[in-house]
Amino acid sequence: MSDPDDGARLAGDLSDRLAALTFVDLTTERVTELLVDTIADWGAAQGWRVYRRAASVVPLPPPMSGQQSVVDVACARPAAPPVVIEVDHTDRRRTVEKLLAEAAAGRVPIWVRWGSRGFTAPPEPVRMATLTVAARRGEAGVRLYSRQPARQLPPPEHHAEPVTAGPADPLFGPTSAS
C-alpha cells in the first residue's frame, strides 16, 4: 500500500523544481516541451526510469478506440507506485478523467498546469503542480509566454539622523511678478 501523502509530497517537490524555471517569449508548444523536459530530468534525478508519452490505461475515443491514450511523463519507481504526469495550459476535463483512471490503476497522478490565470484544483487523489507565467501577443498575434525570476531587492538603507531641509532652490521657489 502506498503512503497517502506520497502524491502531495511529490507534487510539492515537482512544484519546487518548476518554480526555478525562467524563460522569455516561448510559444505554447515550447513551454510544454520545456516543462516535459524539466519533469523528465526531475524524475531521472530521483533515480527513476522515465518514459515520455507512455501508454495510459485509458483508450482513445472513437474512431481511434483501438489505441491507448498516452501520458506526457511516467516514472517507474522501485518499491513504490509509478507516477504519471500530464502537462496542460488549459483546464481539460479529459485530462482529469485520464488521471483519475490512472489513480484507480494504482498510479500516483500529478497534473502540471501552467498559464497566466488561476487554476482550479482537481478532484482527489489527483495532485496539482502549477506554474504561473506572463502572456502577451507577439507578432502576427502569436501568444508568447515568459517567466522571469523574482527580483530580490535589498531593503533600502535608513538613517537615524533627522531629515532637515536644505537651502531653497530658486528654480522651485516662489515666483515674483515682473
Q: Can I get a quick summary?
A:
The protein has 178 residues and is α/β, with parallel strands linked by helices. It is built from 3 helices and 8 strands.
Structural class: alpha/beta
Low-confidence spans: pLDDT under 50, at least 5 residues? Answer: none
Could you tell me the radius of gyration in angstroms?
25 Å
Instruction: For the largest sheet, list the strands in their spatial order.
Output: 2-3-4-5-6
Q: Which topology of one domain does CATH recognise?
A: Trna Endonuclease, Chain: A, domain 1
The termini sit apart by: 93 Å
| Major β-sheet profile | 5 strands, mixed
Beta-strand percent range: 25-35%
List key phrases describing it.
178 residues; alpha/beta; Trna Endonuclease, Chain: A, domain 1; 5-stranded mixed β-sheet; 3-stranded antiparallel β-sheet; 8 strands; 30% strand
Indicate the topology:
Blueprint: H1 6-19, E1 23-26, H2 28-45, E2 49-59, E3 68-76, E4 83-88, H3 93-104, E5 108-115, E6 127-132, E7 134-137, E8 143-147
Parallel strand pairs: 4-5, 5-6
Antiparallel strand pairs: 1-8, 2-3, 3-4, 7-8
How would you sum up this structure, described in words?
The protein has 178 residues and is of the alpha/beta class. It has a domain at 9-111 and 127-147: Trna Endonuclease, Chain: A, domain 1 (3-Layer(aba) Sandwich). It has three helices and eight strands, in the order αβαβββαββββ. It has helices at 6-19, 28-45, 93-104, and strands at residues 23-26, 49-59, 68-76, 83-88, 108-115, 127-132, 134-137, 143-147. The protein starts with 5 loop residues before the first helix and ends in a 31-residue tail after the last strand. The relative contact order is 0.16. The mean pLDDT is 88. Residues 146-178 are annotated as: Disordered.
